[in-house]
Design a protein that fits this description.
Low-confidence stretches: 10-17
CATH architecture: Alpha Horseshoe
Number of domains: 1
Distance between the termini: 55 Å
Number of helices: 5
Strand content: under 5%
Mean pLDDT: 85
């Protein structure tokens, strides 16, 4: 019974991760086309599922004011979440952001 329960949890987490990756991919495609509104929406969906790439991408959007009001504070928050979740570029982005202040 416990093994079956753990298996179901693993399947659920796997599907959740795949959906977050799909949302982030849609967001990246929209961002590259300059559709920042759609990119923001897709990145937020993925970031809420703890997708480190989406969190990093939201940091970029807020740092540069792409589709959102520029906010170094919000950029810091998103970069920090991405770093906490293991994004390899987030610590450098945080360092560069702090140097801008």
């Amino acid at each position: 019974m416990i093994v079956r329960f753990i298996g179901l949890i693993a399947i659920f987490l796997s599907l959740s991760f795949q959906l977050a990756n799909a949302d982030n991919a849609k967001g990246e495609e929209a961002y590259e086309k300059g559709d920042y509104e759609l990119a923001l929406s897709e990145f937020i969906k993925a970031a809420e599922e703890e997708d480190m790439n989406a969190q990093y991408n939201l940091g970029v959007m807020y740092e540069h004011g792409h589709g959102v009001k520029q906010s170094f504070l919000k950029a810091d928050e998103w970069y920090q979440l991405a770093a906490d979740n293991g994004h390899p570029d987030a610590p450098t982005a945080l360092q560069l952001l702090y140097e801008e202040f």
